[in-house]
Amino acid sequence: MFGQRSVDPSPGTHYRSDRVSAVNGQYFFATREGTLEGPFFTRVDAEREIDSYIHRMRVGSSPYQRPSR
């Protein structure tokens, strides 16, 4: 897949792979930022947390974020 995100300095080739990995019976997911998040007890837990992580990253980068009380 060839593409460019808005924060990338130039276009590049990106290969899709499974984001969830199992290590010693625990599950982790990899991020575009190069971090490995986890451990989670099940693959379902890890996949659910991927959605939460993406949401947090999108909200955190919003210029109109409301301050928390």
Automatic annotation (TrEMBL):
Top-rank lineage group of the source organism: Bacteria
Pfam families: DUF6316
UniProt domain DUF6316: residue ranges: 5-58
The protein's name: DUF6316 family protein
